[in-house]
Request: fold
Amino acid sequence: MAERVRVRAWGSHGLHVRTPHYLRGRTGVIERCLGPFPNPEKLAYRLPAEAQTLYRVRFTMAELWGPSAENPDDTVDAEIYAHWLEPADAP
Amino acid sequence: MPHDHPDHGGISPSGHPYRPDQDGPLTEAQALEIAVRELLIEKGIVTAGEIAAAIARMDARSPAVGARIVARAWTDPAFKARLLADGSAAAREMGADIDALKLVVVENTPDTHNAIVCTLCSCYPRTLLGLPPDWYKSREYRSRMVREPRRVLAEFGLHLPPNVRVRVHDSTADMRYIVLPARPAGTEGWSEEQLAAIVTRDCMIGVAVPRLPG
Reply:
């Protein structure tokens, strides 16, 4: 996984999704890799849940909120599963 | 007589409003909970005593567990290094009963302040801090903490200078978080018990910092 990643901007993607809307389409850097976890979008429905690598991704307030950010250099870290991430330079 | 009527003005003699009896119908969730619980007991899967014991065990959890871990980290640099590298393993090393908790510990430094939120629901390190405060689960805290954390922290009485970087941690998935606050000056030579006493729940959520008594 690239160091700079973008959260996929999928809209509706099932019910038990752990990717908050405010992070979708936003670019951040991988803070650390947390290892494999069962995909919660399947696990929540007792479907066979494949392992997804989970990352902590760090976003700046400037990236999340633009010019209205309270302090542009403050950050939000969130856990995002690999299938929700793509390299930041992907088209 | 100061109080002839039991419902005079809806205010009790001690000046608090009476709480009405809960005589309304059960909600769907309440009915479901009772049905599942009774079935589990009827089928011999669990006993009522086991359920009561599990509730007692959950109720017994308190921020004192987390405070003990913070105090150890303040006094034992090698433990602190292990805590930051693998929070769950270090908590178990202290004998904390953390179940399946996957713990990430984030450290406050002179130039970084950390705070915890769960914007999606109310994920919280219950095995280390007990039940979350109501405000932690409120839509207001959950939405504002990632949008304007400095204003939220100021409302808790914590005013951070602009040169201190704020790092908010959104517990979106499998990890749970506690903040390792900075050890305050003036606590040199204190015992772990003395140190643990100034580590409050709010310090470990990151909406406060430890203060010396008095």
Remarks:
- DSSP finds eleven helices and four strands in chain B.
- Chain B touches chain A through 22 residues (CB under 8 Å).
- The longest helix of chain B spans residues 28-42.
